[in-house]
UniProtKB/TrEMBL annotation:
Protein name per Swiss-Prot or TrEMBL: 2OG-Fe dioxygenase family protein
InterPro entries: 2OG-Fe_dioxygenase (IPR018724)
Superkingdom of the organism of origin: Bacteria
Species in which this protein is naturally found: Streptomyces cinnamoneus
GO molecular function, one term: dioxygenase activity
Lineage, top ranks: Bacteria, Bacillati, Actinomycetota, Actinomycetes, Kitasatosporales
Pfam families, alphabetized: 2OG-Fe_Oxy_2
Amino acid sequence: MNHVSDVPEQPPPFVQFGPEVLTGAWETVPVSAVKEFTESWNDLPADGHLPTDVPYRFRRYSTFRLAAGGLERLPHTAFFQDADVNAVNGGVHRMFAPLEDSVAAGPVLSAIVTTLYERIPGSTAGIDTCGVHQIRVVATADAEGNPAPEGVHQDGHHYVGQVLIQRDNVRGAESILYDLERRPVHRAVLREPFETILLDDRRVLHGVTPVTPAADSRAGVRDMLLVDFFPGPHR
Ligand SMILES: [Fe+2]
């Protein structure tokens, strides 16, 4: 008897897929709604929790229950990570501005979250809640933007989707995944809007290299949508 085969096989701890997966999920959504969704990154308040004089990160955050009929927005709350997963901001309840109603209730966010959920690389048992972050990192010739100043880390969730919304005039921002011994297992630069990495946050760590402006540019921008999946307290 081969005991090795008795062990249930786990899927790889991450998947990466091209933009066609998400764009295919909203084929019936008007182009104007997709445009409104992506342009909402132009109106993100500065992240007040960064130790820099000039803000380089801008964001909004809301949480939702994953209901049969779609996303149910939950009361606005602070974003919290334990100090052992975030050495820079861990242990602090960070209050960010909520998502705009048009984004939170719109068809594009719902399609993205549903599609990510369907492709989660592992068991979805008990996972009924998600946190949605809209994040813009700006790099200038004077100051690079650091999407993850905490370095190589875990987010403290079950699964995390990292969706590129746009990168404009930037260099860098290489996404790197690591096994639990901190050995790199995957490297990728997300370039096409809606290219996505979806990872099991308990089985891999992640980091991203700093963002600098492209050659001959004064400033560059990288917009991301992050979706955290986890079991909520409301059952
Ligand atoms: Fe992270």
